[in-house]
Design goal:
By secondary structure, the chain is an alpha+beta fold. The chain has a single domain (about 1-140, about 145-190), classed as Ubiquitin C-terminal Hydrolase UCH-l3, CATH 3.40.532. It has eight helices and four strands; from the N terminus they run ααβαααααβββα. Strand 3 (about 160-165) and strand 4 (about 175-180) form a beta hairpin. The longest helix has 17 residues, at about 45-60. It is globular.
């Protein structure tokens, strides 16, 4: 519903993945263009995140210039950031309605830095209003913008044959290696 309100034609849909076993992954319609992962933020995860960042800064990594990445500066907006990452990195596969506010946001922000994109999102009224109205339509009450939440969304995408983890809390995308359209879901869940 959120994406429909932002002007994404319903050619693509989100489906739940019930487990990572091969028989459960086989239930997911193909092709898969992104995976959104919701997980708890724990002390163990925070330690891993810090160590991963230090390792990547020390060793470096290849990130294609075509990867669309934005920082998260709005509290409790990780789901929206994850959706933007999923759609932005699959623009060529998406059909946008003529007056799509998300298409306009993506076009306007394409040449921006990840930090500039975050600032632009903070002021982009159409997405903010749609986010708020969608949050209130959910099955559970949405947390306030200032509430401490211990769950987080990230997006996994295939850009140019590489699997990227896009987490607005991190300073950069994380390249997790090669993938293909056929293996993306399995490689992503691994």
């Amino acid at each position: 519903q959120f994406l429909k309100q932002l002007g994404i034609h319903p050619d693509w849909q989100f489906v739940d993945v019930y487990g990572m076993e091969p028989e459960l992954l086989s239930m997911v319609p193909r092709p898969v263009c992104a995976v959104l992962l919701l997980f708890p933020i724990t002390e163990k995860y925070e330690t891993f995140r810090t160590e991963e960042e230090e390792r990547i800064r020390a060793k470096g990594q290849d990130v294609k210039s075509s990867v669309y990445f934005m920082k998260q500066t709005i509290n409790n907006a990780c789901g929206t950031i994850g959706l933007i990452h999923a759609i932005a990195n699959n623009r060529d596969k998406m059909n946008f309605e003529t007056n799509s506010s998300l298409k306009k946001f993506l076009e306007d922000s394409l040449s921006m830095t990840p930090e500039e994109r975050a600032k632009y999102l903070e002021t982009y009224e159409a997405i903010r209003v749609t986010h708020e109205s969608s949050a209130h339509e959910g099955q559970t009450e949405a947390p306030s913008i200032d509430e401490k939440v211990d769950l987080h969304f990230i997006a996994l995408v295939n850009v140019g044959g590489h699997l990227y983890e896009l987490d607005g809390r991190k300073p950069f995308p994380v390249n997790h290696g090669e993938t293909s359209d056929d293996s993306f879901l399995e490689v992503g869940t691994e």
